[in-house]
Each structure stands twice: as C-alpha cells, then as structure tokens.
Amino acid sequence: MTAVEQPETPLGHGNMRRKEDARFIRGRGTYVDDVTLPGMLHGAVLRSPYAHARIVSIDTSAAQAHPKVRAVITGETLAGLNLAWMPTLSHDVQAVLATDKVRFQGQEVAFVVAEDRYSARDALELIDVDYEALPPVIDARQALAEDAPVIRDDLEGRTDNHIFDWESGDAAATDDVFASAEVVAAQDMLYPRVHPAPLETCGAVADMDAVTGKLTVWTTTQAPHAHRTIYALVAGLPEHKIRIISPDIGGGFGNKVGIYPGYVCAVVGSIVTGKPVKWVEDRSENLMSTSFARDYHMHGEIAATKDGRILGLRVNVLADHGAFNGTAQPTKFPAGFFGVFTGSYDLEAAHCSVTGVYTNKAPGGVAYACSFRITEAVYLVERLVDVLAFDLGMDPAELRMKNLLRPEQFPYRSKTGWEYDSGDYPTALRAALDLADYPALRAEQALKRERGEQMGIGVAFFTEAVGAGPRKHMDILGLGMADGAELRVHPTGKAVLRLSCQTQGQGHETTFAQIVGEELGISPDDIDVVHGDTDQTPFGLGTYGSRSTPVSGAAAAVVARKVRERARIVASAMLEVSADDLEWEKGRWFVRGDVEAGRTIQEIALAAHSDLELPEGVEGHLDATCVYNPPNLTYPFGAYVCVVDVDADTGQVTVRRFVAVDDCGVRINPMIVEGQVHGGLADGVGMALMQVMAFDEDGNHLGGSFMDYLLPTSMECPSWELGETVTPSPHHPIGAKGIGESATVGSPAAVVNAVVDALRPFGVRHADMPLTPAAVWSAAQGTPLRTDLAIT
Amino acid sequence: MTAVEQPETPLGHGNMRRKEDARFIRGRGTYVDDVTLPGMLHGAVLRSPYAHARIVSIDTSAAQAHPKVRAVITGETLAGLNLAWMPTLSHDVQAVLATDKVRFQGQEVAFVVAEDRYSARDALELIDVDYEALPPVIDARQALAEDAPVIRDDLEGRTDNHIFDWESGDAAATDDVFASAEVVAAQDMLYPRVHPAPLETCGAVADMDAVTGKLTVWTTTQAPHAHRTIYALVAGLPEHKIRIISPDIGGGFGNKVGIYPGYVCAVVGSIVTGKPVKWVEDRSENLMSTSFARDYHMHGEIAATKDGRILGLRVNVLADHGAFNGTAQPTKFPAGFFGVFTGSYDLEAAHCSVTGVYTNKAPGGVAYACSFRITEAVYLVERLVDVLAFDLGMDPAELRMKNLLRPEQFPYRSKTGWEYDSGDYPTALRAALDLADYPALRAEQALKRERGEQMGIGVAFFTEAVGAGPRKHMDILGLGMADGAELRVHPTGKAVLRLSCQTQGQGHETTFAQIVGEELGISPDDIDVVHGDTDQTPFGLGTYGSRSTPVSGAAAAVVARKVRERARIVASAMLEVSADDLEWEKGRWFVRGDVEAGRTIQEIALAAHSDLELPEGVEGHLDATCVYNPPNLTYPFGAYVCVVDVDADTGQVTVRRFVAVDDCGVRINPMIVEGQVHGGLADGVGMALMQVMAFDEDGNHLGGSFMDYLLPTSMECPSWELGETVTPSPHHPIGAKGIGESATVGSPAAVVNAVVDALRPFGVRHADMPLTPAAVWSAAQGTPLRTDLAIT
C-alpha cells in the first residue's frame, strides 16, 4: 500500500498511520534543543585543530574574563571531579577533555559555559592553547609500522597501535578447502569510513538540582538506561538520583548509543554553575567528532567448484578504530558480529581474522546501521560472490540460487557458530527476481550493450543477525541484554506500555501499541507507549541493532499476555465460573460453550479496580511487568535487485530501479516496515555512490559539512519496488524479526554489483565505494581511485 | 527524642531526619502555584454573594471586552462540553458553575481566563449577574421543616432537603438495655462546622495539548488516580491521555480529596484557549467554598449500672451536609464510619441513627482528619462517659478503666460489626495516667479549688478505624480500595519505590524508604519514593483516613519482600547453590551454615542486570509490583490527659499540659510519628477552643479569613508530653496501624473534658465547642452560648 491511503486503526496488527506523526508533522515534537529551562546556560566545546599534538599549555584567563562567561572547564577541572576519563562501550577509555595530547582533529579540549550560545562560541576563541604538533597516523595500513608513533601512550604499557586480533571459524579446515578447490577468487576491498549523519545532531541539557542532588539530563541517546548506569558507575553519582530523558530523537543509526564528551561537559557545567546547561553540537561538530562507522580494509577469498558450488570463505580485515575504541566492537557473541560473514550460503568451511588498530581519527567502531559490522560482512561476501560469478562467467543470480541455504536446513548453525532461526531464502530470491522481471532486464541489458550503453543489474542477498541479547552471550560493559516492559491497564480500559527501548523515529508509539492491541483487543489508539525516560520506564539497554521489535516487542507481547491471564482471573470472579472454563477471543473472555456470557477487557479492567472480591492471593488491578531475555538472535533476510544506468563518459550513475524483497518475519505494521526499508535503501545508495569521510595526510577531516559529505535525496533514489516473504521467527512470541537496518545492510552490495556489472564491458571486476563519478570514470579507465585518503 | 538530635540514617526503621526537608526548609519545594508554563494564562472564579438565589441572567460582555481577557466561561459553556455537572464522592452531583440557582455563598458562577491573575480578578467585577434572592436554609434543624425551601430542586423528584437516613447497631436490643438500666445519662451536643484550613489553598494548572490530546493537570489533590479516573468517567476524556500531577502539597487533612469546580474550570479554560491555565484560590475562597467538616447535631444517651458499668449507647444525629453531599459519607462499611461510636468500651448493645440534610452552606461531609466521622463519634462517646461520671460522681479515669475493652477480647467484634484488630487499652490508659501523674494532678486541683482557682483535668480514650479498604467493603464511586506499589532496584543497588498514595507533608519519602530499607537492607538514602503523578505511579485511591502506612506501607513491605525473593534466585545462580539453602540477613543472602559465602543486595542487583545466566523461566532485573488489598482496617488507639487552667472571670482557657500515649502499632520512624501527633494535638486544641465556621441568618459566611477563623499557634499549645505503647496490627505485614489523624480524633474530647471539669464548681456538666472565652464565661454563668449560628 502507499502512504496516501488512510487506513482505519486496526485492533492489532495491520496498517495504521503513525500515532506520533500528529506532533511531528505539525512541528510539535520535543527535541533536546527544544528543552528550555529557567536560568539555563549554554555550553560550547573547544576542539583540537590538530589530528595529533602535545598540549603544552591552556590559558583560559581571557575567556573567563568574558562578561557573559560563567565557567571554563578543562581536563583539570574534570580531574578534580574524577571525571577526566570516561569509558567507551568497548572497554576502552576516552579523555573527556584532552590534557596531555590531542589524538584526532576535533577532539574536545575545553568547554565554555556562558549566558547564551553566541557568547559561549565567542569565548572559545579567547582560549589560548599551545600545541606542539606530532606526526599523525591516518592510514590504518601504516598504524602497525615500526616507526608509527604510539597514539595511545595514555594507556599503560602500550607500545604500538594494535587494539585486538580476533578470529572466527576453523582456519585449518578452511585452508584445506581452499587447497583443494577448483576455483579461488580473491579481492581486496574497502568499506570506507562513513558517518550515520542523523537529522538531529547530538546534545544534552543537564540540570543538577543542588538541593535534592538529582541530576536530570535530556539527551540524544538511543540507550537512556545504559547512560544512567554508566554515569552512576563511572562518575560515582547515585543511580536513583540520575534521570536520563531521551525526548524525541531525530534519527540515531548508532550515532546516539555512546556517551560523548559534550554530554559529560554539560553535566559538569551544571554541577559547577548550579544552573541547567545546554550543549548542542552543530552539524560540523557532529560530522567531525561523533562516532564513525566502517573503515574496514578487507581481503576476501572465495573457493568454489568450476560449476559454481561455493565451498569456503577466507577473510582478513584491518579495522581502523580511530583514536579511541568506540561502541561495542568486538562483542562476546561468538566473536563479534562480523562473524556472520558466511552470509546466506551453505559452505564447507570459513575463516576470518580481524585486526583492530588505533589511528589519529575520530573514534570509530560505531554500530551504524547495521548491527556491529554485519553491513561490512554482507558487503564483502556479496561482492565476492559477484567476483566469483565474473571469474566463472556465471549469472550472479543463478550462482546465488545454487548456493543459498535451503529451507530444510533451518534452524541452521553456521560455520562460525551462529544459529539462524528460520528462513526460506530461495523463495525470497525468486520473488525479487520475479518482481524485477530479471530475464527481461538481462535482455534489455544485452540490447543496450550492443548500442554501447552501460546498464548494470546488481543482485544481493543478505542475512542479518539482530535482536541482541541473549543476556548470557552479550553485554555492554557487563550489563546484560534483557529488556523490561510494564503494562498498566487503567480502570476504563485504556492502557500505558512502558518500555526500556527508545525510538529515534521508528514509530514505536504505534507499533508497540499494536502489539499490545493484538494481544488484548484494546485499540492501539487507547494505548500510550512511554519510553526514553529512565524515571518512567523499566531497565533495558536501548534501541540499536534492530533490537526493538525482537526484544522489546517480545517483552510487550509477553507482558500483554500476562495481563490477559490476570484478566482471566478477574473475569472468572465476575462471571462466577472457573477460570479454566473461560476462552479468549480478541478483547474478551467468555464462558466456553456460551459465547454470550463474557466480559470485555474494558469491563474486566473496571472490575479489577472496583470492589469486586477476588480469590485469596489474587491481586487486583490489571498491571504486569516482564523482563524479556531473548533465547537467540533473530535473522531477517532479503533479496535485492538494483538496476543502474551508467554514463561511462562522465561516470554518472543513475539508480533506475530497486527491487527489495524483505523477510522480517511477522509484520506488525506493514506501512512502517516499508518506511523503514525505504530509508535503509536510500542509505545504501548514499554509501554506495557518494559517501566517504576522507582525510588528508595531516589528518584534516574533509567532510565537515553536507557540501562535502553527501546524503542521497529523492533525486538520487528511484521509486522503490518492495516485496515480502514472511518466515516467522520460531522463538519470538509473535514471530517478528526486526527490520530497522535490513535495507542498509543489503543495498550497498546490490548497487555496487550493479555498477560493476554495468562496467563489465570495460573489464571491471571490482571498484571500491563510493562510486562517485570520478571513481566510476577512473574504474572504466582501468585506474581505480583510492577513495578514503585525499593524498595527492 | 527531640528534633534537635541528628540521628544517623538507619538501615531500616528508626529515627532519621526527613529526606524531604532539605528542599522544604530551603524553600525549594514545588507547590502548584510554583508551576509556571510558557504562555500560561490565569483564571479566577466569580462566586455567589448569596446563600440562595435564582440566577436571572449573566452578562459577560463587558468582561469579554477586557483587553487581557481570553475567555469567560459560564455554565452554558460547560453544558456545551457536557461538563456542567460533576459527581461528588458521595454519589451526589454538583454544578461546576451555577446556572439555574446558587445554593451557597461562595458558589462558583463564572470563570475568567486572562493573561495575568490581576486582570482575571478585575474582569470578575465586569460580569453582571442578576440574582433573585431566595430564603436560605442555614440551621440544619430547620432543613426538614414543612415550609423549608427545597434546595436541591435540580435533582429529579426531590421535594425536601432530606439526603439519607442510616443506622447502625441493634435498636431493639439497645432499647431493652436502656429500659432496664439503673442509670441513663443523656446529652445534646454539637460538633461545630470546622474547616481543615491547610497551609496551601487549592489550585490547579491545566495544560491540554491540542496535538497529542494529552491533558496534564498539576493539582492539589490527595488522590491523583481517583481524580484521573473520575475525569475519564465523567468528562469522557480518554484516561491514558490524562496525567494528574500532585506536586508538593502544603497540607490536606481531607480538604484535597474531592474535585472542586475550580479544577474543572482550569481544565476547560485550557481546552477553550489552547493554553495552560492556572487557577489558585486565595485564603478566603478556600475557607468559604471548599469542603467543610463536622456540623453534627448529636443527641447521645449512655446506660450504665450505678457502680459505673457501661451497658449501652443510643445516639441520634442530624448531619448538615451543605448544598451538595460531599466526600464519601456515608460509606458502605458497615454503615459509615460513625458506626465506631461504640468507642473503646465493652457494651451490651448500641444503636445510632444519622439523618443527613441539605442546607444552604458550602458542601460538607468532608473527611477532615479524621476518618469519615470517627472524630465526631469519639468526641460524642468520650463526652458521654464524662457526663456519666459527672452524674455518678465517679472519677472519669476510673470509669474508663472499668469499662475499656480487655486485651483478651481482641480481635474484638464491636456491637456495630467492626473487627478491632488488636489492642491493650488498659495499659495505654495507665501509661498516660502515670505520665501525667494523675493522682498528683487531682490533688493539685483540689488545692486550687480550695483557693477558688479553676483547674481542669480531662481524660479521653479513643479507638480509630483507619486504612481503608478492604476493597470488598469500601469504594469511592465504585473504585476499590486496593493500592499499588512498584519497586525497581537499579543495577548499582539504588532503588525507586512508586506508590499510589500521595503525601501532603507526612514524610512519605522518608517513611516508605525506611520500610523498603528494613526489608532489603538498602539505606533509605539510596531509595527514592515517587508519588503524586499518575504517569509515574500505579493505581490507588490516595492518602486520607490515615491509610498511607496501613495500605501503601503494607504494599511497600510486600513489594520489597517480592524483590528479596527475586534476589534469592539471582543469588543462588551467583553462588551456585539451591535457593533453598540460602538464608537472609539484613541486606544479604548467604549460604546456610557458611555466613561468609553470601552476596549483598547491591551485588545481586548488579548481577541481575548483567549477563549472568538465570534458571529457565526466571526473569532478570530486580523489579516487582504489588497491589495490596488490606484484609481489614487497622485500629490505632490512645489515651490522652489534658490539664487546663481556666480564668472564670474572662473565660480564658490555658492548656497547661497535654499527655498523649498513642499506640499505632509498629513505629517506622518514631520522630515522624511524634511530629504527626504534635500536629494533631494542636489541631484538637484549635477545634476545642477556637474554631467554628459560623453563619448569619442570611447564610453569610463569617469565617472568611484567619482573623475570624482561628488557628492555634505555639502560643496556645503546651509542650506536648508523649508516650507510647506498641500493639502491632496482626494482619499488617509490618504491624503498623497509621498515626496521621489519631491526635485530631482524641484530643478535642480531652480538652473539652478538661474545661468542663474545670467548670465543675459552677455546676457545668457540658458545654459545646468551641470553648472560646465567651462560651466558657457564659457556661460558667449557666447560660450556654449557641456557637454555630451568629443569630441574634
């Protein structure tokens, strides 16, 4: 369906308009920058102009003398509060404000609190920092060189820039498969450093009440409870005296999971001045210093038989994490999410090793949609399959169909130990090929090639692993991934659902109300969803990695079922029959065999709050809580077909068609699912064709505005053609799998495969993202561009 | 202990300073009038100058033309919104703004919304109401006269001013006892109309968000959830779109249970203008139009043997409820709380009948501390016992001791069907007499009488019935009296307790934290108590009738025990032993027989939120909820001795000493209990000596300021001498009974008994409250004053 239709509110699952849109469309959302408190002050961050330098001295006296400045905070101030260093979510530490050295361009050096934002900015220029420049490490491939400067000399005993090595799969078995394989195709490829670039930048309003000792922080976070606990553990603030409010959030995509120095500075600013302090970064700060993603230098090899049976994968990765090791990488589960690099195929063996290094760039390793490196892994394997098809002269769709996992193999344990829950991959691929009319496309391509026109058809298949937990396998700084939900049904049968997850625009207020509506027969319009406020919601680790529906969605269904069972007891007291004799139909318990004798959930709710006498030991009201610990991840998947036209003379790529068949299990609100897919596909087009955070040799960041770092618009996107298959997750209460990131994961390979396919007449077997006009033109010329470094 | 000592925070029960005082003492509380919202408008109420009049017309045009007026609301406006009439908590209805008639002086007639409070007040004078005066009914004893005007002709079929008759006890058995009794003493007495007069008047800030449809009301209420549900049921507003916030409240005493027209007007004002609207009444409005209490004309008879064995009680009451039948009277439980008029004595039979009538006064029947008419009942029986002692020439303390219920009679079922839970009355009376040194007082009195000085000694004993539910016996508009509690223990072991009750200064934030601290071994400093916000707390019917500790306190203990049991499962997983092998000591589960092998609640809390693997089916975290439905009321009791000096020439009474021995079961924070008793005793002194809401014959209210309606100050109060006995309630989880109102209930009789005792040389057997100098002087002259009516 298209968005212009106006569906009626269903009693549960189904298309309905987003409840939150009423305020968003009218400009009545409340973002962090909309929060204004009496007496509020404004903060601004002084950032390093150097990628690598020693700080000789910081003179703040002139800034402090500014008539509107209330405080100037440096690392020294913070050290006095024991807040100089903060943990990253990967067990690293990061200076809140640099003291000894700056380690990336844009690093935070000082924080000014003033009466208005303009004065705060003006005063930054009055701070005199004496830097002694140091040689920077910008190219990850130079990070482990003998003579490379040691970036993290703040860490005790650190003598190089090595962070970690990890591997996944059976190296010996993989080598054996490769040794005996008929065909081996290898390819180096880069997944460039990109940025989530949410519509809203990061910010915080911190308000420390000196009398009650309560700290309230309105902040752009996808994980309010994790922030609260981390503030408590790290800063020694009492956890019950911290309230994190994450109001309306203008996009996250992983950019708003971690804690940034600016947040801490706002808090310290409020402690120091006794007033609320607002800090909101500008676009250039967001692009320069908040978490990046990708930056993977990958070498992949694929082994196969001559007739195209894929046997094995062998991968080496050099991962550039910047100056501090950021969000959640690698995680415990089997050995980081890159471990799903075996993709959607039936392999004999696979092995992968990843080495992480520090460089003088902003902290990386962020979980930018998607899911902790799955995007890179899917891109790698889907490019490798196309490279193999190139080498074998096979059709890439046919090659995939031949090697996809078969339905009867599920639940499937991958060669790297992942338990895929359910899937019917060939059906999804066939659906995509049918929707695209693949044979007709190939025929059209053949005709065009005869005319010297470059048309490309890219196929990609992906499997995601989303919905982190389970708690025993995953954590953030030791906090387990189980999510809370609370459901209260008011006397009149209206309800409020409180969730630990936090929306950044995904439509949670609608989807989760529909989940509860489906279980209880209460209209989603009568159910409010509350999230994003630690004072109002149960504990949980937030929204990222498409985990809201797999985890919080499951919690919502489970807690609604608990309420339904409580309602059954109340109904049995109302009807004076045994609870065992009651049957449920949507919204109503009735006496088995006498459908007239029943009570609606609304009638039951009123009775549960009334003077009705309940059996001994049965509590009144209709409230319930649940903590959901997922038994496994969920595994959405999909098949994408992209059609491009390439102008080989200018390098211009036009994405003419994009067919996406997604399987995210049961769809609660198909309209919202499709919206999520639309966004992710656009994201993929952007990464494939236009985005890279490039640096010059001094570490100067070359993507500080949307003039340099490009976002796709409707002009660059086709009218998406969507299809679906539905393979419910067997372990999820309602069979849903999560859709938030699927399209971002699957689409870049489809676009790149299409462009490379278009360039086949030029003998192009691979070209690195982003496929800008210059890159495409150069590839066609046989002289591929280095896209990540602007080194002449 | 005295308040100047500074106790350390105990781990549970015990003396500690109130956590809330940090903000109260520094003027950092947030009362309704402190709430200021952007664009907020201000409302003012136009009130009737007549006690009874027909409204011929209302012309608002001049007011509407005022440049700063945004809206003028009349009953007509409300009728359009279906909000013209609102329910009272006694199943009556009250006009929000009068349309046909005004029925008491001060009744709400119109509401002006303006840009500031001053303009709103100014514009009131521009409203032209044409009244046609009607004869008012002011004296309840005239209300049922043939020719009395029918006040509530708005009620269909109403032809007189009769509201209800109810009775309690066995009339025939009582008549038999009286017929054969050796002695019968009878006395008419008045419990005058008084006003709770809280420090903060009533008010509301209403904010209807036109986009989200959410109505937020900051309001002075003791029962936020009841308000929310009533708004939902009556106004048809969706309950999940209503948020009632009751912030810091400056005293309630029953005055802030019901819904007042001003609240509804503020809501309508916000709906009509699209802006937040604040309405805060001034002192004179509060005294004139918000709920009164008492106004009972009582005739009591007591039957006894010559040697002072009390056999029976027979009582008739005429209850003046004003123009609308207000808060919760009579209630279902056995037949209204006046039913405890049998007091603390072992009777053979008792009977009481009460007739309620309408008069042209402000709505009465409020539950002003205490408990729905128990204050009147205790006053009546304790005066009757003294009258009997007078007639028999017996010492009133001895007469009481002879007739008090004995410990072995508990649990005791009274002749009117009340199940007293526990008590040791003689011990309490003896403790009070000992503390007062009663024989020495009587000796002193004898000496003084010889010198012609009037010294009086008053003794009173009381039994209260508090802690409403149980749900099957009690309700407010059909809502049952079960209270919710939610407890979350954060990862670091700090906790938040969410309660449905609402404090008005009783120290809930401290006491309830101590209850949880006692059960879990978490410091009360580490536990935040949240209440007074329907969005943040579970459902329950609020705080009144000393029910917070009996009901919500029980809920707090039960929910903490649930958490302790959850912690046991987690500890068993941590320690890898069976949960059955664990033992609890304060704050810690340890392995039986190996006290070293244990985990503190804080360690358990962190593990419960970590990646610890829990047994199948066990949910993580350490949260729990509870809905507590009390199996019975609790029955605090106490013995009071009051010593007064009376100047018979001027009528001046000086309360020289006041000894109060209270038994409220287990004391959670003795310092807070003593503070509650101090306040209640002062309250009793005020009612006994100085307070009455009087009216002239036209229904003009004569107590519109604190110049007319007097409150006792420290100048009128002695240094209270407190004692205690502790008889735990057997059915309450921690044995607590509630203390909020005890002293208000017990002290008026003690003071009046003392004054009458002082006047014994003048032959005075009874004198009605308030015992003002004029009343005392007149009584001594043998010409008792009528105190309730200023009718010449």
From TrEMBL, chains A, B:
GO MF: anaerobic carbon-monoxide dehydrogenase activity; copper ion binding; iron ion binding; molybdenum ion binding
Domain Aldehyde oxidase/xanthine dehydrogenase a/b hammerhead span(s) in chain numbering: 26-135
Keyword Oxidoreductase appears in the UniProt entry: yes
Keyword set, alphabetical order: Molybdenum, Oxidoreductase
UniProt-listed Enzyme Commission number(s): 1.2.7.4
Cofactor (UniProt): Mo-molybdopterin cytosine dinucleotide
SUPFAM superfamilies per record: CO dehydrogenase molybdoprotein N-domain-like, Molybdenum cofactor-binding domain
Name recorded for this polypeptide: Carbon-monoxide dehydrogenase large subunit
